[in-house]
């Protein structure tokens, strides 16, 4: 967040520098009030670009085996342009890079869902999947999945074969 603040001020300062050069080249024909206006405009434009490009920059940096599951968009009252063009400030993704398939029974898998949000640390939620039974379980608070598919300390939840998260976890490859 600190780097974004520094970059915002730098963008405003950069546009001010451009306006000062233009004023110098035109021998002062551009009014003085354009200098502070350029500073504000530069900061505003950078902030809008930074918000709208965050999702793309973040997802492009993820490994190819990470599957994006959902990307809700937000409308924020203090950013009125988001009512016309909603912005994505968070998403959920399945991390297939660390997926573990049971050696005893390939129907059972373990993976983590990443909950990524702008301005917040990424949270990882470990999950267990029963691909044949169309079930999944949260592996939190001491819940564990044994290699034979036995779940201890948790409960399976029937999600159906059309569940996007289950499909992403159970697809081959």
Keywords:
6-stranded antiparallel beta sheet; 173 residues; 3 helices; single chain; alpha+beta
Provide an overview of this structure.
- The chain has a six-stranded antiparallel beta sheet, covered by helices on one side.
- It has helices at 2-25, 34-60, 164-170; strands at residues 66-70, 90-101, 108-117, 123-130, 135-138, 144-145, 151-152, 157-158.
- Helix 1 (2-25) crosses helix 2.
- With 173 residues, it is α+β, with helices and mostly antiparallel strands.
- Strand 2 and strand 3 (108-117) form a beta hairpin.
- The chain is 34% helix and 26% strand.
- The radius of gyration is 24 Å and the shape is rod-shaped.
- The mean pLDDT is 90.
First and last CA, distance: 37 Å
Strand order of the largest sheet: 1-2-3-4-5-8
Radius of gyration: 24 Å
Q: How large is the share of residues in beta strands?
A: 25-35%
The level of helicity is 25-40%
Low-confidence stretches: none
Short structural description:
The chain has helices at residues 2-25, 34-60, 164-170; strands spanning 66-70, 90-101, 108-117, 123-130, 135-138, 144-145, 151-152, 157-158.
Give a topology summary.
Layout: H1 2-25, H2 34-60, E1 66-70, E2 90-101, E3 108-117, E4 123-130, E5 135-138, E6 144-145, E7 151-152, E8 157-158, H3 164-170
Antiparallel strand pairs: 1-2, 2-3, 3-4, 4-5, 5-8, 6-7
């Amino acid at each position: 967040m600190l780097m974004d603040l520094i970059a915002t001020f730098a963008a405003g300062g950069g546009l001010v520098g451009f306006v000062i050069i233009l004023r110098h080249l035109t021998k002062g024909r551009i009014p003085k009030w354009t200098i502070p206006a350029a500073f504000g405009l530069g900061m505003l434009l950078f902030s809008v670009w930074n918000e709208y490009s965050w999702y793309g920059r973040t997802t492009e940096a993820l490994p190819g085996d990470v599957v994006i599951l959902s990307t809700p968009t937000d409308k924020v009252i203090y950013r009125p342009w988001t009512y016309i063009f909603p912005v994505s400030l968070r998403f959920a993704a399945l991390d297939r890079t660390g997926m573990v398939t049971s050696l005893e029974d390939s129907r059972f898998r373990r993976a983590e869902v990443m909950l990524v949000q702008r301005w917040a640390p990424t949270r990882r939620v470990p999950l267990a999947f029963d691909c044949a039974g169309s079930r999944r379980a949260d592996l939190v608070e001491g819940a564990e999945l044994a290699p034979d598919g036995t779940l201890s300390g948790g409960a399976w939840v029937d999600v159906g074969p059309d569940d996007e998260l289950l499909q992403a976890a159970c697809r081959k490859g």
